[in-house]
Amino acid sequence: MRRLRSEPGSALLLVAVTLVALVWANSPWSHAYEELWHLPLSVRLGEAGIDMSLHHWVNDGLMVIFFFVVGLEVRQELAVGSLRDRRRALLPVVAGILGVALPAAIYLAIAGREAAAGWGVVVGTDTAFLLGALALVGPRMSNQLRVFLLTLTVVDDFLAVSIIGVFYTNDLNVMALGVAVVALVVLWLLGRSRQWRSSPYVAVVVVLWLATLESGIHPSIAGMVAGLLVPAYATHRARVEDARTLFRDYWQSPEADVARSVSRGLARSISVNERLHVSLRGPSSLVVVPIFALANAGVDLRGDTLSTAMTSSVTWGVVAGLVLGKLVGISLGTWLAIRMGLGRMPEGVGPGSIMGGAALSGIGFTVSLLVIGLAFTDPTLVDSATVGVLIAMAGAWLLGWLIFRVARDRFGEVSADLPVTLTPPVHPELDHIYGPVDAECTVVEYYDYECPFCSTTTGMGRDLVDHFGDRVRFVARHLPVTDRHPHALRAAWVAEAAARQDMFWQMHQALFAHQHELGEETYRRLADDIGLDLEQFEEDLADESLAERVQLHAQSAFESGARGTPTFFLNGSRHIGPHDARTIIEHLERQLRDTEQAPARRRS
């Protein structure tokens, strides 16, 4: 199950389900496939109710969950993610716009006379397939490219859903549309009032879906807009500390009422957007999208269906729009944005990797199949467009693999990520080391004295030494984030001044303990509290070489790929993921086991 939850796993699951749909639709039991999705299904409450085929329940019901998750992701990116920095976001935004416009133009140039309504088939990118394919055929380390492509697909999906809502809408029911607008206003008010419970949002989204379904607008846009209105924000240290206090209460008094308070406290510490996203992301990728693929990818290729599709301009308009349009549009958009000074290439990502990611963006699938059902009523056009989407999926995957391989072999683009190796290695003259200098395991932390989450890891060195004993050493390196933490740089100098009197770790602990009151008066009080010679402390604090030492640490962070705090390196490699003591201990134990078993594997 863990493998299925990974990006490669979810992509392979979609491939498998698509093949099942195709085999089923072309088997002796194909009539059962058709009958299944035309099966009527109704939900009624008294005189009111909804009557739709199972196929429509999937496309107009389940897929709302998918687009709601997309909307949640967009809101997260705008609030705390890559779209928060508008300058950084401009590059993928421009690339995403051209990656929508050019494929549509190519499709209309090829198939506009036969089926102009199908231009929306080529505008979307299947995010799950894209990221899964990237993990399978892209560079081994591709996190920065992944962030770029994820931001790009956020723009892509937003435009695609907007196009569905505007251009593929039936006759409007004004009353139902009014109810939908009221539901959106209520969602906005819930966000403004900082409502932290998820149930009110879910209840309003259900009402919004029902109203949109009756209004004539495709419900996908309701899901996207609803997700955009669910508030997202960074986790605040105060909320985390409140939750810790509540958990301590439960540890002392394990009763049901206290447990309920702990559960509510934990929920309040995380934004409702993030909680809903985590809850729905798995069902969306592992249930909703595969069911959608099963319901929509089954094209009966027997008879003259395939031959008709291969000679149809619709098929090749879809293929050219997705495979060539996405590649050229996104690559050209990226180049134009850079030339216009709107942004820079993501750190560690070369032009070949951008082109490879642009090629993989030609995997339209989910949005493409959805638009096909909205754009065409002629079964022949539906089959031709669906065949085009499937050919484009295979072609985009193959083209992406080829471009990544050429970029690696010809241009040396073996990675599309920030550096992951600690540079320079740990050295007693450069570093502050807690534990034996020659220990088997090394944990390096880049930190900032005003970083609220660095302070929660302050005692990790002791935790590691308590667990591993003499087998581990903990190393502290400065990374003052001066644009957000005005006192961090001076505090780092203070710690280095204390180190001149062999009191670095005492000052290190004291600065974190008083990080909300950092200032000259606090520094001198702390120096006195830990027993420093105050006259020598003042002299050392005025020494410019302290600034040089802190700058060396900051430079090593940049060269090692650390861009924020706290960042950890385990035995020389940057750690990605949770950084609590238990997780770090588990990683180190795994590395130790692998090191101990390596000689036995070589002998065998």
Q: Briefly, what is this?
A:
This protein has 604 residues and is mostly helical. Helix content is 66%, strand content 6%. It has helices at 2-5, 7-25, 30-37, 54-80, 86-115, 127-137, 143-167, 174-192, 199-215, 219-229, 237-252, 256-269, 272-296, 305-310, 313-339, 351-360, 366-375, 379-411, 460-468, 488-499, 504-513, 520-529, 534-541, 545-560, 581-603; strands spanning 40-45, 48-53, 432-434, 441-447, 472-478, 567-570, 573-574.
Describe the structure.
The strands form two sheets. The chain has a five-stranded mixed beta sheet, with helices on both faces. The relative contact order is 0.10. The mean pLDDT is 86. By secondary structure, the protein is mostly helical.
**Share of helix, binned:** 55-70%
Q: For the report, how would you describe the main beta sheet? A: 5 strands, mixed
Low-confidence stretches: none
- Read across the widest sheet, the strand sequence of neighbours is 3-5-4-6-7
Compute the number of helices.
25
State the distance separating the first and last CA atoms: 31 Å
What does the average pLDDT come to? 86
Shape: globular
Please compute the radius of gyration using only Cα atoms.
28 Å
Kindly estimate the percentage of residues that lie in beta strands according to DSSP: 5-15%
Secondary-structure class: mainly alpha
- Oligomerization state: single chain
Count every beta strand, where a strand is a DSSP E run of 2 or more residues.
7
